[in-house]
Design goal:
With 276 residues, this protein is of the alpha+beta class. It folds into 2 domains: 115 residues, 2-Layer Sandwich (D-amino Acid Aminotransferase, Chain A, domain 1), CATH 3.30.470.10; 152 residues, Alpha-Beta Barrel (D-amino Acid Aminotransferase, Chain A, domain 2). The strands form 2 sheets. Strands 7, 8, 9, 10, 11, 12, 13, 14 and 15 form a 9-stranded mixed beta sheet that branches. A 6-stranded antiparallel beta sheet has the order 2-1-6-5-3-4. α6 links the parallel β11 and β12. α2 packs across α3. It is globular and about 55 Å long. The protein binds N-(5'-phosphopyridoxyl)-D-alanine. The site of N-(5'-phosphopyridoxyl)-D-alanine has 14 residues, from α6 and β13. The site of N-(5'-phosphopyridoxyl)-D-alanine (PDD) has 14 residues, from α6 and β13.
Length: 276
């Protein structure tokens, strides 16, 4: 399969330097974009977020957002990808290892590749379990950077407990999950953590907010506690490719009736109509 390396679409080989700042410092940003029926979903939103991440870490993008977008569309075509994801990352480039930015400006290193993946229909319909984990990340979780060690550790805990996700809490406040956003439903209304520095402003989250409006559901972008989470009528997570997954159990606590809730199912159905 082909990859994007800087501005060329070429065969995959070992071309990343040992002093790439992404490799050494996690000094870079990334995006994961879902591909449905050969089309990247919500590509503009992902590219806008990439541009924002770049700005926040003071990384100069190698080309315009439109050029990057076109390259990704070309890559999907070159790989004949129908269902799966695009992974794209941009690092601050290759230079002698000093923490500060390289003195002589070096070009960023851009890579993207695709991965074929089945749709997650079964888990979306059936739901899954989650575990709780303390949110030990830094205070700029709104930037989609390569520094994911806390997320990796949290997800590993989930997997070791046969769970799909680790739902993170900072003290008593639920923030998001290791690689997804979290919504709860209580008395017919939705609640999700506000899009501030404590969470990644998910593209799927944003779409769910829009769809909920269309379904006349009230969404409160407010913080809520671990106790609110465990006593919710419904809980679901949102992320690229996972779309919307009902959470039926958290640690040992059954959520609601232990089956996917009606509001979650409505939102899932509305989300599927975006690409079906
Ligand atoms: N993760 N929160 C975190 C910490 C995430 O890493 C992600 C996505 C999300 C959901 O964002 P979106 O709806 O834009 O995918 C929320 C991607 C999929 C990943 O790292 O693989």
């Amino acid at each position: 399969s082909k990859i994007l390396y800087n501005n060329q679409i070429i065969g995959r080989k070992n071309m990343i330097d040992i002093e790439d700042r992404g490799y050494q410092f996690g000094d870079g940003i990334y995006e994961v974009i879902g591909v449905y029926n050969g089309t990247p979903l919500m590509l503009d939103d992902h590219m806008e977020r990439l541009a924002r991440s770049a700005k926040e870490v003071r990384l100069t993008l190698p080309s315009t957002i439109n050029e990057l977008k076109n390259k990704l569309v070309q890559l999907v075509a070159a790989n004949d990808l129908n269902e799966g994801i695009i992974y794209m990352q941009i690092t601050r480039g290759t230079a002698a290892r000093w923490h500060e930015f390289p003195k002589n400006e070096v070009p960023p290193v851009t890579i993207a590749y695709t991965r074929a993946e089945e749709r997650m229909t079964a888990v979306e319909d059936q739901g899954a379990a989650a575990v709780l984990a303390e949110d030990i990340r830094w205070l700029r979780c709104d930037i989609k950077t390569l520094n994911l060690l806390p997320n990796v550790l949290a997800k590993q805990k989930a997997v070791e407990h046969q769970a799909i996700e680790a739902i993170l809490h900072r003290g008593n406040t639920v923030t998001e999950a290791s690689a997804s956003n979290v919504f709860i439903v209580k008395n017919g209304e939705l609640y999700t953590h506000p899009a501030n520095n404590f969470i990644l402003n998910g593209i799927t989250r944003k779409k769910v907010l829009q769809l909920s409006k269309g379904l006349n559901l009230k969404v409160n972008e407010t913080t809520y506690s671990v106790d609110d989470l465990l006593k919710a009528d419904e809980v679901f997570i949102t992320a690229t490719k996972l779309d919307i997954v009902p959470i039926l159990k958290i640690d040992d606590q059954i959520i609601g009736f232990g089956v996917p809730g009606e509001i979650t199912k409505q939102i899932l159905q509305a989300f599927r109509s975006l690409y079906e």
